[in-house]
Specification:
Rossmann fold, alpha/beta, single chain
């Protein structure tokens, strides 16, 4: 594990593959961590990739550099963190890939800074939050699935997450991936990241802000306004759905209009934690984007 100062964070990250390999940035979700990609990474490094897996803000060894920085989990902050990490690594561009929070961060970075992103792999397609829409109700079946988001709107929810983070997160793993049964050691390896001292604050703020019920960090206000305009994704992208993912009933193939460059959508018979449940499929999506870019370079 390495650390690097990047923007407002000191980021902990794993770095695999040749130092001069083609760059890939893999971002994990909530409540997971970098180990979601343990079986994806060897498939990429075998093809010459240098793969960096950062612990997102509030997870694992990543820390805020200043006690005065807001412990925000808003989408503009997550996307900004990825671009700050590209700067710190001195990568002009990279393929970015992620799911859940990591997919959100990757989409935000791609939409706002397309010149820094060579290509995108995103589970749940155009995963930028429409906060105005989230102020209003969904179908009751989906509201039932996102019970944890409603819980986190209350101080009772903050207390529950703080006191029972492993039990709560284990429950989400089981509910979101109905046909995947990891052993306890697999869960424990990622659950160690939930002991970060900022985990509860960042998670609670993320979901309160996404519901329009908490103010954002003023540092990201202009970026949030741009995201509210639903900027398109203008780089080559492969998007993914888990057909058993209860958070995305019916999938996200209808997001295709938000992608203006070469784009392919794929459905995989797994739940929400796609890179850990189907690592070959996730790696293949990244390799497909790489092949598109390589072909474009030759023409």
């Amino acid at each position: 594990m390495k650390t690097i100062d990047a923007g407002v964070l000191t980021v902990g990250y794993l770095d695999d593959g040749p130092g001069d390999g083609w760059p890939v940035l893999l971002s994990h979700g909530f409540p997971y961590d970098v180990h979601a990609y343990d079986e994806v990474v060897p498939r990429l490094t075998a093809r010459g990739a240098r793969v960096v897996r950062p612990y997102l803000r509030g997870f694992g060894p990543t820390r805020f550099r200043s006690a005065g920085t807001a412990r925000s989990g808003q989408q503009a902050a997550l996307g900004s963190d990825l671009v700050a990490l590209l700067d710190a690594l001195r990568w002009e561009t990279a393929i970015v890939a992620g799911y859940d929070w990591g997919g959100l961060a990757s989409c935000v970075a791609t939409a706002l800074w397309p010149e820094r992103i060579a290509g995108l792999v995103s589970m749940a397609s155009y995963d930028i939050l429409d906060i105005d829409r989230l102020r209003h109700a969904h179908d009751p079946a989906l509201e039932h699935v996102i019970w944890y988001q409603h819980l986190f709107q209350t101080e009772r929810g903050r207390e529950c997450l703080a006191a029972s983070r492993r039990d709560l997160c284990r429950m989400l793993w089981r509910q979101w991936s109905p046909s995947w049964r990891p052993d306890e050691a697999t869960f424990a390896r990622s659950a160690a990241s939930f002991d970060n001292p900022d985990f509860v604050d960042v998670v609670v703020h993320a979901y309160r802000h996404s519901f329009g019920l908490a103010s954002g960090d003023p540092a990201y206000e202009d970026l949030e306004k741009r995201l509210a305009g639903r900027p398109p994704i203008t780089v080559p992208a492969v998007t993914l759905d888990g057909t058993q993912d209860p958070l995305k009933p019916g999938g996200t193939a209808d997001h295709a209009e938000m992608f203006t460059a070469r784009h392919e959508h794929r459905a995989v018979e797994v739940g929400h934690n796609l890179p850990q449940e189907a690592p070959a499929a996730f790696a293949d999506a990244i390799l497909t984007v790489r092949e598109w870019l390589h072909a474009a370079d030759r023409t």
